[in-house]
Amino acid sequence: MKETSVLCLLFLISLLSCTTNQARLTVSPSSSQFFKLDFVSLSCEEDDSSAGWTLRRNTTEGQRTPCGDGWGKPAGSKKSSCNISYMYPLDSGVYWCESREGPISNMVNLTVTGGSVILQSPVLPVMEGDDVTLLCKTKTTPSNLPAAFYKDGSLIRKQPTGHMTIQHVSRSDEGLYKCDISGHGESPSSWITVTGDTLTCLCFCSFQHSQCDDNLMTVFALF
Ligand SMILES: *[C@@H]1O[C@H](CO)[C@@H](O)[C@H](O)[C@H]1NC(C)=O
Ligand SMILES: *[C@@H]1O[C@H](CO)[C@@H](O)[C@H](O)[C@H]1NC(C)=O
Ligand SMILES: *[C@@H]1O[C@H](CO)[C@@H](O)[C@H](O)[C@H]1NC(C)=O
């Protein structure tokens, strides 16, 4: 019981120290897929701006390329926010924030298509238990055409309005999603990642004393 409390406290402390020297990369509009010539705004939401966070990306064009170095428009001298006015398929890649001392933020995969269909899926990992809405849209028509949704290559649902909601997502919903709209084409594929609900783990931790150790390991594995 005593050890359990200590473990929980340690967990809380590590959770807090995890979040104090961290940045979170946000993408606006919030989507992992874009049409060619779309605008996107990327930003490192930082707890400690003195850490000197820089937005970087890996694409087929280059590795660890900072914002402003051939891509994006930095906000003044700061390279922690960056806008791309017109995206091209070559802007597809992995984006993240990196501090001078080395820690990195969450990573985000962005895909830019020259095609006419995209899947709007959550760009950040989704919490277990949340509802997730996917939207299949075309470049030219209002987004309420019938669409078919696929997970890991298999058809999962056909929806008359191009929206699909997955209720109470669980780990088994994790995978590679795409959609298609008859007569318009297929979207690129994007990963949907599901993470554990840390609050549940914490409560679990304080009530199920005997299982605290195992559960803590799970919690740490999620970070
Ligand atoms: C970016 O590319 C570098 C060099 O290939 C690699 O070491 C690094 O792991 C990549 N980072 C990401 C986030 O993919
Ligand atoms: C980036 O875009 C946002 C939203 O349109 C705008 O508020 C911000 O001023 C822009 N920043 C730069 C550096 O252009
Ligand atoms: C990015 O995409 C690659 C390959 O498609 C995948 O292995 C990786 O898990 C994705 N990363 C994120 C953060 O979604």
Automatic annotation (TrEMBL):
SMART domains in the record: IG
> Do the record's keywords include Membrane?
no
| GO CC annotations on file | external side of plasma membrane
One GO term of the biological process aspect: cell surface receptor signaling pathway
Entry annotated with the keyword Ribonucleoprotein:
no
Q: Name one Pfam family in it.
A: Ig_3
For this UniProt record, the keywords arranged alphabetically read as follows: Disulfide bond, Signal
Query: Where does the Ig-like domain start and stop, copy by copy?
Result: 103-195
Q: Which domain of life is it from?
A: Eukaryota
How far does the signal peptide extend, from start to end residue?
1-23
Q: Name one GO molecular function term.
A: transmembrane signaling receptor activity
Name listed for the protein in its UniProt record? Ig-like domain-containing protein
Q: Which organism is it from?
A: Oreochromis niloticus (Nile tilapia)
